[in-house]
Design brief:
The chain contains 7 helices and 4 strands. The chain is an alpha+beta fold. The chain has a 4-stranded antiparallel β-sheet. Helix 1 packs antiparallel against helix 3 and helix 4 crosses helix 5.
Length: 186
């Protein structure tokens, strides 16, 4: 079984953002005890952009856990509670990683197993480094503050330093055998 990441986005009605935020946080807290849920991140609209799109990125221990969660009474109750506060239907997307770093100039992608190997090679040391550096600085803070700080630092490090370096160094390996992989996968 492999971990599954799902993004769900909703457009909130104008003037309902505060109410939606309160209900969303309550739902998130309640849903964290659901079987197979490993974590969740909330993406709020950037200030002064005019956007009212909220995103919830949820991690599950398996595809079965994700399916069970989205079929659950808890999730359907949340949809009903949110209905008066949102416009349109929710958009669900499965996320598969950091594919953007692996696109070549032709827009092609190497095999996923190679992307997974290099992503691990970048993420593991970044998480270790930032966890070690930030622990003494944030000691005594709520675990969520520490977690957010580590994740922000890891994402910034991966985006601007680690992944560009790793994909440049491993570019020949990433592209080796790629044409055969594409023809087989299609």
């Amino acid at each position: 079984m492999s971990v599954v990441h799902v993004a769900v986005t909703r457009n909130v009605r104008s003037g309902m953002e505060e109410q939606f935020d309160v209900k969303l946080l309550s739902f998130i807290r309640e849903s964290m005890s659901s079987e197979g849920v490993l974590g969740v991140h909330i993406l709020r609209p950037a200030p002064q952009t005019g956007s009212r799109e909220y995103g919830v990125l949820r991690t599950f221990e398996s595809e079965e856990a994700a399916e069970k969660f989205y079929a659950s009474e808890l999730f359907h109750r949340w949809l009903d509670d949110a209905e008066p506060l949102v416009e349109g239907e929710p958009v669900h997307r499965r996320l598969t990683g950091l594919e953007a770093f692996f696109r070549s100039g032709r827009g092609t992608m190497p095999p996923r197993w190679k992307m997974a190997c290099l992503t691990f090679l970048g993420v593991f040391p970044a998480v270790l480094f930032w966890s070690t550096v930030l622990l003494p600085v944030l000691e005594g803070q709520h675990w969520l503050v520490f977690s957010v700080a580590v994740n922000v630092c890891v994402v910034v490090t991966l985006t601007w330093l680690v992944m560009p370096f790793i994909t440049r160094v491993f570019h020949p390996w990433l592209q080796t055998g790629y044409a055969e992989q594409i023809s087989i996968s299609r």
